[in-house]
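The pair is quoted verbatim below.
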Amino acid sequence: MAEYDFHHLHHVKEQKHSRKALWVTLVLTAFFTGVEIVGGLLSNSLALLSDSAHMISDVIALGLSMVALHLATRPPNARFTFGFLRFEIIASFLNGLALAVIALGIFIEGIRRLIHPERMELGLMLGIASLGFVVNLVLTLVLHRSVEEEDNLNVRSALWHFIGDLLSSVGVIVSAGLIYWTGQLWFDPLISMVIGGIIFTGGAKIVRESFLMLMESVPERFDLEQIRRDIAAVEGVEDVHEMHLWAISSDHYSLSAHVLTDNRVQPFCIILAITEMLKRTYGIEHATIQTEHVQIHPHGEYGRQFMLKQQQEPSESGTYLPM
């Protein structure tokens, strides 16, 4: 059977730095999660147990991130013509949702413990929290460095998990100190609820960003109307419509548009000029431009209004031509 090129662009990601960072993070997180679960049960600390519950979600989140990185390396085929990059966004959405749900659980348990305070082993609680702070600080720095080298919403969602863990460790340490000096047990659930609020904020941000990508909304970094004006300024373009711009993943963008053209200008030259402008000005490398003529392609009322406007106000050609 003949080989078919289902897409002329390389819709895959080879993210070696992200893969290595996630493997290191996954192994250390899985180990320390077990330590925190045992320590939280023995010390009866909600802050410590909430942190361990969060770390369980970290293990799941990292697993999803690893699957997403693996799928991102697979090439497009006859069924998935854009490849498997979109799973990165699905994993990010699930990770953000997990953060929000865990934060709500911490908040609910915090209210219960404010009403019915429970004693805890401060020494064990403080020792495990201090070790957790060191581990989470190292893992947060590893993931932060990875995000700086290879921007990836999937890895950024995992990073937010560890920022939450780092804050949780700080909260447990502060909580243990305040309880030791004041004897007030309500510090433990109160600080846990504050940490839960911060975790929820991070999760909601990731959910929103990934949801917008899944809904194929225009990425916030682009001004669609400005792009429309720039396309309209290309020589031979008389009108731009049916324009769409969306993200396949966090750094892969696609654009499609229909343009009514001047039949005195070669349409291939118009397409070349538009695609060169999009690539040079906006970094959009995947653009599908359909050239049309209003008297040949049906446009209904839109086409009639355009022809009337042409008759009343002769259009001026743009100025952009590829070098």
